[in-house]
Amino acid sequence: MSDVLMPGLYIVATPIGNLGDLSPRAAEVLANAALVAVEDTRVTAGLFRHIGTKRPMIAYHDHNADRVRPGLVERMGREAVALVSDAGTPLISDPGYKLVRDARAAGHLVVTIPGPCAAIAALTLAGLPTDRFLFLGFLPAKAGAKAEAIAEVASVRATLVLYESGPRLAATLSALAKELGDREAAVTREITKKFEEAVTGTLTVLADRYADSPPRGEIVVVVAPPGEAPPANIEDADAALAEALTRLPASKAAAEVAKKFNLDRRELYARAMELKD
Ligand code: SAM
Questions:
Q1: Distance 176 CA to ligand 1 centre (A)
Q2: What is the pTM of this model?
Q3: What is the pLDDT of residues 176-221, one digit of tens each?
């Protein structure tokens, strides 16, 4: 057993491009863990070279997780087991939540060593509201499923954050513009690396920019929340209500117009009764 670490599971965030971002605490935990669960042993071997140590590693990724997990949970009852991703914070668009769930269920200690996360770093670069944000991870690759996933969050009053690859960026920006309207956005790229950048503009301007020149490197897209809905025009609502009453009973007409104009359904019902008289 390690002298430094109690038995349990240690979730360790690692750099997303700049090794200087490895925290002293993360380095200490990695150097003292009995076993480190990693996505790719070659990637984490590089991190160990940086720390100047070597620890036993075991691959833990989407393809073997169900098979490997019970053995890991058993070991963390008597030893310190660390979990890392290739880069960034484990569990964030990376494997790990089932390991945490099972570790807890077995009554083991679970400790987090927070640090770099591309989604959070992108928010700090984008210059868009950060008081409420929704992390979407990777959108589906196929156009139909992608449009559906975007439409699902179109009315959410929060900044949207999503991971994307260079070759898919332009198509995703166009799909976002189509489903959300032409909101302000930022394409953040190669965060913490030599060519870190944040390119800002509306979704259509950004889609045009990248249409013929897919950028290299790793990308996070940040999209502004929807603007304030324009105040409902009462004459338009009245006209819509009158039209709806030609097709629907008053309660249904009121509900339809209330939804369309974001108005109070009961008030519209009362107005519908007036119009009928
Ligand atoms: N768990 C990681 C984290 O905490 O950010 C994310 C893992 S996810 C599999 C990898 C994606 O994160 C990349 O495809 C990219 O969208 C984003 N990403 C990771 N590193 C990045 C960087 N340095 N700059 C921009 N985006 C990055």
A1: 20
A2: 0.84
A3: 999 999 999 999 999 999 999 999 999 999 999 999 999 999 999 9
In whole angstroms, what is the distance from residue 103 CA to residue 6 CA? 14
Residues 245 and 188: beta-carbon distance below 8 Å: no
d(CA 135, CA 177): 18
At which of 116, 138, 153 does a domain end?
116
Provide the percentage of residues in the chain whose pLDDT is more than 90: 83
Is the residue at 2 inside a domain?
no
Please report whether residue 228 resides in a domain.
no
Q: Is the CB of 161 under 6 A from ligand 1?
A: no
Instruction: Give the separation between CA 179 and CA 150, rounded to whole angstroms.
Output: 6
Centre of ligand 1 from the C-alpha of residue 87, in Å: 7
The pLDDT tens digits of the residues spanning 5-19 come to 999 999 999 999 999
Token pair 């209500």: residue: 241
Domain that holds residue 260: 234-276
What is the spatial distance between Cα 141 and Cα 150, in angstroms, rounded to a whole number? 12
With b meaning 16 or more CB within 10 Å and e meaning fewer, what string describes 101-110? ebbeeeebee
Q: Which of 163, 194, 216 to mutate to test the pocket of ligand 1 (most atoms within 8 A of CB)?
A: 163
Overall number of domains in the chain: 3
